[in-house]
Amino acid sequence: MELFLDRLVIGLGQGAIYALLALALVLIYRSTGLLNFAQGEMALFSTYVTWQLIEWGLPLALAILVSMGLAFLGGAAIERAIIRPVGDVEHNSLSIVIVTIGLFLAFNALVGWIWGSDGKIFPKAFTSTLDLGVTTVSWQTLTILLVLVAELAVLFLVFQKTKLGLAMRAVSSNSESSRLVGIRVGRMLMFGWGLAATVGALGGSLYASQLTTLDPSLMAVLLIYAFAAATLGGFDSPLGAVVGGLIVGVVTVMAEGYISWIGGDLKLAFAFVLILIVLTVRPQGLFGKEQVTRV
Amino acid sequence: MTATSASSGPATVGSPAPPTGLFADPRRLAVRVVVTVAVGAVLLYLPQYFPAFRVGQFNIVICYAIAALGLNLLTGYNGQISIGHGAFFGVGAYTTAILVADHGWSHFATLGAAAVIAFVLGVLVGIPALRIRGLYLALVTLALATVFPQIIKRFSDVTGGAQGMRVPKFRAPDWTGLKDDQWKYYVLLTFAVVSFVLVRNLVRSRVGRALIATRDNETAAEVLGVNLAFYKVITFGVSAMLAGIAGSLSVFNDPFVSADKYGINLSIILLVAVVVGGAATIFGPAFGAFFVVFLPDWLPQKYPQLSPVLFGAVLILLMMVAPGGFLGLVRQITAWAKLRFRSSSSPPPAPSAVGETAAITGSGDELASG
């Protein structure tokens, strides 16, 4: 029982990280209708920026905040300079997928170029643990979960209660009509990319802080877990991304722990099979809206 | 190379009507024969001229070209994107490695096994791909590419895992009088030529037209009687089979396999080869393969990270300015040159140039709805 609870806590901690990156994916999808395959590598870049700021003497929390701010600018700039010239998602989705793959490659290589491919030590936010009697939870995990809840709340407020959020939802629902009612569609797309990059920067930094190490291969695998989370939750639902992330985290840790045949190596294969099953059986995910094609 | 340069070259002077067959226009035929013979002679002479190291690189180019040919069939002609063909390449490589090293098969005998296994796996991935389209298919194949090395590591008692495994070398028989690298080159080149000819005939046949129709407008193709499910699944299978054959041949060339050789990077490199060469062109993948193998060589060795950065930048730039890739660009330029330098009596640019340049961009409608 104790082992089970330990694993549950570990799973939730892992899942919270998956959820953070999944949220970034969902944000891009909601505001632009695109799966951003470069999201993980963009987050990787931001995480290295955080690391660099810490090296320069900033405290962890401040470093993450500054890095998030830079990520917002970077994300918006990428939308404006690289994504938009390729064309709109509706008619050029294949081209844009290839562009995001190009970004994936370029960011990963840039990180290796600037910071080298050897691992870096990343500081932990908290080292103490909280004793709950039956099990212990590290403050690190608790913080990540709290950040996740706070982030979800902020995103909910922005999307549902502000004019900006309304405009963003309008653009993703019908960009042509939005333009006609005076919404600046380009600005909204830039904002969506910036927001997603910000969320990714936060997720990446917290992930590195949990692992206490940082290297250029960190995100490739995490991206697949995040995609599994977003697929399970439904690509257009932030709540779904969070719930999906927690489920994926707990289920993979349990599978690794209790089914020796799966072990550490096949954990990722497990996530892959999950993506395949959800997309085949219930493509809209748990919380997503069913897509209806207009003829 | 031969076909394109002949059809867009100077041979069309004074022949406004498109020829109906090879023999309808003797000048065209002559140019085609000359170009084919010239290219063939150069290809045959290469391993005599270059040292073993270069020939080894040419062998890698050939393997990538065959795999990219398969990927192009799927992505360029049929509009199903795959970021996971490195996995099929790896399946072919491991099939050959295991059968040769542990079961004593001859290299040639394993090719058939690699082709069959990769084909079956391709069909298995292709079946869910019927429901999973566009962006989501890209996602699933990306996940496949990431998972493949993990599976190899999990079964390390058979595969050698991350340490990899050595395979007995593929040696030149004595009667040929060739060095090993030259023999490998000629064997690989033979398989490549056969693959290219078969795929060329395939895309020009009924089946090819069905694939292209499906890519351009799925609903319209179905209404016209194209069996979508059948063609899409079979295309996935054939495409994976070519990647598997390429992987198998890569072990002929380099007798060492390890899990991380066949990860996400290989899949992306194959996609780069297709896009750079020109999607939905027959010889584009060969140019693309040449590009991805030799670009790192041309760059200053001081910055090993420069070539992936450039690959990324090239992908992005091509999508912005020339979605048709290298061959698409050549066609656009020749079409433009024809318009510019010939009088109005000359024919308008070949319609195929426009149609095929739009290969990557043309299939957005079905993707958005999926």
Explained architecture:
The complex is a heterodimer of chains A (295) and B (370). Chain A has 295 residues and is mainly alpha-helical. Chain A has a domain at 14-219. Chain A is 74% helix and 3% strand. Chain A is built from 11 helices and 4 strands. Chain A has helices spanning 2-32, 39-55, 60-83, 89-115, 139-161, 163-173, 175-180, 185-211, 218-233, 238-258, 267-281, and strands at residues 120-121, 129-131, 136-138, 213-214. Chain A has a two-stranded antiparallel sheet with strand order 1-4. In chain A, strands 2-3 form a two-stranded antiparallel sheet. Chain B has one domain (58-369). Chain B contains 17 helices and 2 strands. Chain B is globular. At the A-B interface, helix 4, helix 9 and helix 11 of A face helix 6, helix 12, helix 14 and helix 17 of B.
Write the layout of secondary structure elements.
The complex is a heterodimer of chains A (295) and B (370).
Chain A: H1 2-32, H2 39-55, H3 60-83, H4 89-115, E1 120-121, E2 129-131, E3 136-138, H5 139-161, H6 163-173, H7 175-180, H8 185-211, E4 213-214, H9 218-233, H10 238-258, H11 267-281
Antiparallel strand pairs in A: 1-4, 2-3
Helix pairs in contact in A: 1-5, 1-8, 1-9, 1-10, 2-3, 2-4, 2-8, 2-9, 3-8, 5-6, 5-8, 6-8, 9-10, 9-11, 10-11
Chain B: H1 2-8, H2 26-49, H3 52-77, H4 85-103, H5 107-129, H6 135-154, H7 156-159, E1 165-166, H8 180-203, H9 206-216, H10 218-223, H11 228-253, E2 256-257, H12 264-277, H13 284-298, H14 306-321, H15 325-341, H16 351-357, H17 364-369
Antiparallel strand pairs in B: 1-2
Helix pairs in contact in B: 1-2, 2-8, 3-8, 3-11, 3-12, 3-13, 4-5, 4-6, 4-11, 5-11, 8-11, 9-11, 12-13, 12-14, 12-15, 15-16
